[in-house]
Amino acid sequence: xxxxxxxxxxxxxxxxxxxxxxxxxxxxxxxxxxxxxxxxxxxxxxxxxxxxxxxxxxxxxxxxxxxxxxxxxxxxxxxxxxxxxxxxxxxxxxxxxxxxxxxxxxxxxxxxxxxxxxxxxxxxxxxxxxxxxxxxxxxxxxxxxxxxxxxxxxxxxxxxxxxxxxxxxxxxxxxxxxxxxxxxxxxxx
Length: 189
Fold this sequence. Notes:
Blueprint: H1 2-17, E1 23-25, E2 32-40, E3 50-55, E4 58-62, E5 67-73, E6 78-79, H2 86-96, E7 109-121, E8 124-133, E9 136-147, E10 150-158, E11 168-169, E12 174-187
Antiparallel strand pairs: 1-4, 2-3, 2-12, 3-6, 4-5, 5-7, 7-8, 8-9, 9-10, 10-12, 11-12
């Protein structure tokens, strides 16, 4: 009986000190999604690239089952553009929220759900998954690095693949590229 009690104490102590890896919630206060949109066109020297960011609303990952998923509210995406004026940021924000781009009233959520994860080296993974954006779902590949419950990753895709129209002004003399880069910085709770 003493042996069983001693084993039980050791198991409980180990469980308290070393939680099992498994499904973990994403810390929404420390996790963000960043979108980078790049300029192009004849007069692109007079424009600037766009940096857009939103907190990750919810999500989880499971290192044992090799799964990750998260959601972002489309309306939470905010234009940061550190090189732009307040007026320029406001104009870009308004355009981004319009029907040709995000249209958050019609498509309130952006989500990602992994379909496979392959080890690419120590602390590195190639994640395949489904990205839902602007009401359309398409497969994307995400390159991920991380350790100790903190992960960073990125992927590139074309806006037109998701039914969005890259914005042009001045008859196309200044426009944003169709290809955008999406980055995430995720921490567990």
